[in-house]
């Protein structure tokens, strides 16, 4: 039995990094298992979330208890089980879990038997929603290539030589009546471990190809919504040219803000799926390169077939993502332009308001000067009045000369009253200026 983690000895006496063992074990976490002809392999991949992955681990432990074998170690992402006639390769990934069952029983004739799940040959609890079901028939060189070709649809048939002519690989990437995508690996001079490596790469190509294409339905789903947002942006930018009233500008800015929020929500909704599609697409390309495929006769190669059918689907996802990014940038740019226009309009209004305030201040200052002049005259008048009372009293007491009347004395006091009134007003103005300067300093 092969486990996913092999303990690495510590390089004493040096202190070990807490992740060193995990890093070293990662390169050996998913070894290729030897495969001999004839064999039949059933590979299932299930989309799983965090809770489903935890439930799957519990179901797997129950399966091993029923089969009287050891469960996988805690935290393991890969494990290999030998159930006698059948072998199971279990593997957990970030968003899917795979079960790969293989046997050499009843494997002489490719695809000439019923579904093993339906027949009860294999039984397990599926951890999530099925996304990949692949049937691989491994045969030896005694099987004629022409007879194997007849098992597939000629319209999408791919036949290659892989691993430097060590084996043939045949497929049409089409599900059969039982729902399996079928492959045939015809071993020419490949040894069991090489055959296992080739089978594993074929399963990875099919799994990653399917996972990458999960972005395509999402791209088609969001395209109408994206098109509607593009039309809305076009209408808003057209309306910007005729927006002269502040109310119009504010309404357009509100629509732009709502459009920007919708665009960001859509980008957040699709970012992970489109990013995952690109990553899976790169893995598919890498696994095809590792096949070292060469053309077999007149048949299409895997790389040519996927370039014609698979790559355009990924480009569709990339195009939709690029449209989302372009829309977000356009909306943000239009919003900035709109805000700039609103800011300029507000500055113009503020400037007009300041001009009006300055005009009012000038009028107020003129009025203040008039009031100050009137106040000066009024104060002098009241001082003359007080002095006239004083002059009449002095006249009655005989203090003033006989030829000087009280009115004459009051007339002589007029310049003094004006001087006193002016001095008083000057003092008031000086105190007001000092108070204003102190306010500005604070």
What does this structure look like?
By secondary structure, the chain is α+β, with helices and mostly antiparallel strands. It has 3 domains: about 20-210, no CATH class; about 215-350; about 365-440, no CATH class. The protein has 9 helices and 9 strands. The protein has helices spanning about 20-25, 50-65, 115-120, 145-150, 190-210, 215-240, 245-290, 300-395, 405-440, and strands spanning about 40-45, 80, 85-90, 95-105, 130-140, 160, 165-175, 180-185, 295. Strands 2-3-4-1-5-8-7-6-9 form a 9-stranded mixed beta sheet. A hairpin with a 4-residue loop joins β6 and β7 (about 165-175). The longest helix is centred in the last third of the chain and has 95 residues, at about 300-395. It is rod-shaped, with a radius of gyration of 46 Å. The relative contact order is 0.07. Mean pLDDT is about 85; it is low at about 1-10.
